[in-house]
Amino acid sequence: MAVNESIDILNSAYLAVEYIDSFLPDNPLQQPFKNAWNYMLDNYTKFQIATWGSLIVHELSYFLLCLPGFIFQFIPYMRKYKIQQDKPETWEKQWKCLKTLLFNHFCIQLPLICGTYYFTEYFSIPYDWERMPRWYVLLAQCFGCAVIEDAWHYFLHRLLHHKRIYKYIHKVHHEFITPFGMQAEYAHPLETLILGAGFFIGIIVFCNHVILLWAWVICRLMETIDVHSGYDIPLNPLHLVPFYAGARFHDFHHMNFIGNYASTFTWWDRIFGTDYQYISYQEKEKNQELLTEKKSK
């Protein structure tokens, strides 16, 4: 009964969104995007699209999303939004990060990306424009992927913090107590494989078009780069996502090493009480701010 009710609710929500979408004006970018997509299908093989297309989407998205945080360090006005203001980025750390990052991208992730074509063929995942899901379906699928990846990340990330294995794998990622955007995928190769596996579970569950692969890549990178940015920017649209953890939540994990293990949402840490140190830290900060305000009056 409960399952049927849930299905009815989801169907009703889908119909409601579809009804609202029918009143929205036509997207002026849709036709150029359709033309570009069909041009790609006409001029490249599925293997080329799945492999090199996925690589280009990943690399462009990663470094473009890292760019704002990189620029912020040169803008004095943005310093007030930096979470750990007493620990600025250094060229030495950023260069070290970039070298490891490029190794992971091209020696670990690229071989995995090369399997994308075979994955889409095995599951008969379409590439054509006609079967591409609507924007709201893609959005819902990406949210579903994020929920699944977040659960995987919480438990495996927490395991990597176990004292018997921490120094062999996850310690690499924690070389930087003050995170910055580019450091999001700075990790031991084994960690890239272990935690990265959570990315593919949602794809196996939801993928009904190759566009979801790319949409989920962009969404996942947007989230992980944001939480590693080291900046808590006001009016961040990601804060509109329900239960979104954000940069302060994950920045505390790098600063404290214990707790706040989830990647995107706050519920697993809340359920298992692994956010108690973060909550205590927040309360101390609030009390300190109140004392400062009283003294200034």
UniProtKB/TrEMBL annotation:
Keywords, comma-separated and alphabetical: Membrane, Transmembrane, Transmembrane helix
UniProt-recorded name of the protein: Methylsterol monooxygenase 1
Domain Fatty acid hydroxylase per the UniProt entry, residue ranges: 144-274
Residue ranges of the TM segments: 60-79, 100-120, 135-156, 192-217
One GO BP annotation of this record: lipid biosynthetic process
InterPro entries membership: Fatty_acid_hydroxylase, Sterol_Desaturase_Related
Species of provenance: Chelonoidis abingdonii (Abingdon island giant tortoise)
Localization per record: Membrane
GO cellular component, one term: membrane
PANTHER family: STEROL DESATURASE
Pfam families, sorted: FA_hydroxylase (PF04116)
GO molecular function: iron ion binding; oxidoreductase activity
